[in-house]
Task: structure prediction
Amino acid sequence: MTEKLFTHRAYWRWSTGVQLARLPAAMAPLAFTVLTTATTGSYRLGGIMMSVYVVAELVCAVPSGRLLDRVGPAKGLVLLLVCAAAGLGGLAAAASAGASGATLLALVVVPGAISGGLSGGFRTLLAGTISDELLPRAIAVDAMILDGVLILGPALVAVLTMADSLLPLVAMAVVYLLSATLVPQPSVSRETPSANRPMRTALPWLACQFTIGHLLSTVEVAPLPLAQRLGAGERAAALVIAVLCGASIAGSALYAWRGLKLGRPRLQAGLLLGGFVVGGSLVAGNFGWPGLLAGIVVIGSCTGPLVTVASVQMQRLLPKERRSEGFSLSFAVQSTGFGIGSLSVGVLPLSLAPLLGVASALVACLMLGKRPKATVGTLSATS
Result:
């Protein structure tokens, strides 16, 4: 390997920019709750604000990605990041002026709608930032760092809230602006051109992304009831989340360290989905603490590698001129799985909710096992 990822300055510039762009989303749930509790006395309004933010993000993800493809991902990302910062600044100003709950709900749509395309835009730029040879390792490292960002976000809000309830929103806006200064200008010559493929060939990889969000959210939303089922409380629930994050980081680190080749990506994805099936079944079954922790470890350790395999294959299938749109679609699909998994915890018995995620993994396995026939047409994210 002629290039080394850990000394690749362009990659780490990209990584810093994308982590900063992700940080506001990790801060948002707690930041909105703190804001509305302080300004209106209702923490429930903060939860509704977050729901509106997520819905706007999902609805506008693909249109935002299409916009980035038209104007160029680097130029478009700077524009979106600056507009998202302005939207959060406007929200903070309105809250400071004593705006009504309806006004806050209307204003939160703006940063939510804008942020939907950020993930796809940054992922598109990665293709031109590093060589195809380093791509699997780069994505695995990125998945590992992302876990740290998800932990840092709420912790940062908790610290900033000690000074003022509006400060987290201001910090989110500043972070977006910092991210805009780090958007890389990709070198097109660094990437291997992708061939246009039939649209149906991407469906198994979108199914993998859906499964990741589906099963992972089931575990992340249900740590307290899972702990209570075993006679424990909040501290044990925190332990479940810590084990999940640790296993996810370790799985991504191992994948990046070994530098696994994607010679047989469908087989690799099938094995990782099999890990999801085993892990989800252990979590669903009441096998005591050994069974629960073993299931959590298996799910966490398979998450990063599966994200890597699916993302690399999506890049190889997406036409270059539709990548931002396609990766934004992938983000929306995974987020939809996350929402369905969260909902299942609220409406299904605790023993059944993880099994719904297991069913998603089995369906994805079946889709990977069927090789599509060659058909006329190219991959279309809108399709």
Q: What stands out?
A: Residues 199-369 form a domain with the Growth Hormone; Chain: A; fold (CATH 1.20.1250.20). The first helix runs from residue 9 to 39.
